[in-house]
Structure formats: C-alpha cells, structure tokens
Amino acid sequence: MAKQRMQPIAAFQALRRLIADPEQTHEVFTVIRALSGSALDRGFRRFTNTATGRMILREKRNLLDTLNNREALAELPAQSLARHYLNFVQTENLTADGLVEASEEIDYAENGPSFALFATRQRDMHDLWHTLTRYGRDELGEALLLAFTYAQSRNRGIGIICLAGCLELSKTYGRGVFRAAYQAYRDGKNAAWLPAQDWEYLLTQPIDEVRQALRIPEPVQYSTLRSEAIAAA
User: Fold this and answer.
1) I need a labelling partner for 199 at 20 to 30 A (CA). Which of 2, 58, 69, 87 fits?
2) Contact assessment for residue 28 and residue 149, using Cβ atoms and an 8 Å cutoff
3) Domain map of the chain by residue range?
C-alpha cells in the first residue's frame, strides 16, 4: 500500500476551521487524512498479524451493522458493554452512522476491501472507546479521547488535533488539561490494542470485566477537572 502523502497546508486550514467550529466533525477526518502518513497502513499490517484480525477479515464482519442493531443490543444484560454503549449513544442522541457521514469523502476502498474493512471498523468503534474510557462527548472528553487514540494509533493527525484542542481548552481548565492529556495518552499506551479486539463478543460481556481485560483504568484527571469546572460554574 502506498504511503499517504502529507498535506500540511490542507491540514492547517482544516484545523483552523475546526477550532472555529468544533461541530464540523468532517474537518477532523480532513486533518487526519492530511497528516496520517503511513499510520493506517501500519495499523492494517498489525491487524492482519493477529488471529482476531484475520478472523474478522475472513468473516467480512461489519461492526456498524452490529452497533446499528439497537434492538439486539437492548436484549443483552444490563451490565454488558452493549447496554452501556446503548445508553451512551441514546443519551447523546448519536447514531453509529454519524461518523460515516463525516468521513464520506475518504475512499478507504481504494486500497482494497480488506483495508477498507479495517479502516471503517476502526472509525466505527469510536463511541465504544468513549463508553469504555469514560471520556464524555464534551470538548474536554473528546480532546482526551484523542490523546488516548493517538497512543493507540500513532497517527500524527490525531496528535495535532489533540494538541490544538488542549491549547484551546487550557484557557478554561488551566494547565491541568495537559496533565489529563498525559494520563489519557499513558492509559492508551498501556491498554490492549483496541483495533484488533473482538467487539462483537465484548459487547456481550460485563463492562467492568471488559475494562479490566483491556487494561482501561478510570480517567481520574478528567473527572477531577470536570468536577472542578462544575463547582466553579
């Protein structure tokens, strides 16, 4: 697979638009694509070197279909990852298709169906990561989940967005935001590699057991900053 050509000017312009309006989610994918280099290719190779990754490719699994089947998710036990995920997306009024729409300009299939399956699967698990890490969809939570994600993916585009977000958020949260970002990065580095997990199975399991198995701790710094901000409001 060819290495994605770096496009720093396009990334900078998209980052400025994103900072001006954080709701423009598609700009996130523009920055990531412009600066990702070989990160996604490295991730795909790592994925195919795992037994779970090869099984997922062989079975041509579509994680999006599983996440969109809310009736089936709702039938699983109350303490399962599925039910916690379902509560998260319903509370936040999200659909699993939201990130698909935001990334529609990216043609993952140009590198073949297996690569496209890996790339879209990694995209579609974003809200599962929110659920497991306990980073919310507030601006601070999104920035810290990016720090966690950067540790998992080593994608420079994600790292740049995280840094820009933390610099902006430091105006509100002070230097504590950088301590929280470091914890998120460290936790992402110490966790199991999430892109190669069998999410279809893990959705059926108790969320506390999944967190323990994947080595995902409580985000103490994030919780502290959020509590301080609420108390000060």
Assistant:
1) 2
2) no
3) 8-232
